[in-house]
Amino acid sequence: MNKARSNPLNTVMMHGALILYTLIALFPVFVILINSFKTRKAIFREPLALPDADSFSTIGYETVMKQGDFFLYFQNSMVVTVASLFFVLLFGAMAAYALSEYRFRGNMLMGLYLALGIMIPIRIGTVAILEMMVATGLVNTLWALILVYTAQGLPLAVFILSEFMRQVSDDLKNAGRIDGLSEYTIFFRLVLPLVRPAMATVAVFNMIPIWNDLWFPLILAPAEETKTLTLGSQVFIGQFVTDWNAVLSALSMAILPVLILYVIFSRQLIRGITSGAVK
Fold it and tell me: How confident is the model at residue 89 (pLDDT cuts 50, 70, 90)?
């Protein structure tokens, strides 16, 4: 195993494969960014060319700022995403701690029940969710989206965090109990700081589908004042005519928060993904 890892050819091939995958993953982002600064004719004539003096244009960004209330859509997306992640991490960590720390009747069944949420898409229950939101008066409110996304992200959060919390030393927690710390204090001050890589992993895995979702905003919150960024971008897509400059510009601005979040949490994300691979 060590010889295979130290083989220069294997190292070059591995890095080459990683670089190729990175280029493939970033290629759509690159195409969207360069075409957002080009005229409509240049987009279709030379979609892979960089903007030059003749093709450069910011008409797409000007259209987004004038026609759509972009900042309101951006604010709604940020509120929904941040609030959903907060509740997913808080309740997911609490449930994971309870399942990993305490032994009670039905402990395993509860874990399996929560794991079913990973395998069964929440969109299957769209009709029931819509009826529930209508009955509670939450349609066209951001709380409707926050509640749905919280329920959507909890199964994965519990599944990942419970495995990490089982690795936290029992001696550390027992020492805290001997010192008179309450279970809440042990959870928030001793356990949570040790599972930060796992929480960063859960945050990134949940943030991307929440930020990019179009299904639930279209069904639960289609009003102008509650539109998210993804739904608001659809105003530039018509049945017969599509303003591709505005669409690409809106997508470019929508990509930025995801990239910033990844840069901030990339180290924690990598640690969270790989920490269980090496004993």
Answer: very high
If asked whether residues 135 and 242 sit together in one domain, one would say yes
**Whole-structure pTM over 0.90, yes or no?**
no
Q: Could you tell me where the DSSP H helices lie in the chain?
A: 2-6, 8-35, 40-45, 59-67, 70-101, 107-119, 126-136, 142-165, 170-178, 183-185, 192-194, 196-212, 215-220, 229-232, 244-274
Q: Are residues 150 and 101 in the same domain?
A: yes
Beta bridge partners of 56: 38
Structure tokens belonging to residue 48: 């892979």
- Quote the tokens at residue 223: 């009003």
What span, in angstroms and rounded, lies between the C-alpha atoms of 256 and 266?
A: 15
pLDDT at 197 over 60: yes
Cβ-based neighbour number of residue 145 at 10 Å: 27
User: Could you give the CA distance from residue 275 to residue 39 in angstroms, rounded to a whole number?
Assistant: 47
- DSSP designation for 50: P
DSSP letter at 187? I
- 210, 149 contact by CB (below 8 A): yes
Query: Residue 86's pLDDT is what?
Result: 95
d(CA 99, CA 191): 14
Give φ, ψ of 237 to 5 degrees. Answer: -105, 110
Task: Record the tokens describing residue 196, joined without a space.
Answer: 């930060």
Which residue type, as a one-letter code, is found at position 230? Answer: T
Domain count, the chain: 2
Residues 41 and 120 both lie in one domain:
no
Which range of 40-49, 168-177, 217-226 scores highest in mean pLDDT? It is 217-226
Q: Rounded CA gap, 151 and 264, in Å?
A: 25
Q: What angle do CA 136, 138, 142 make, to 5 degrees?
A: 155
Pair 56, 187 in one domain: no
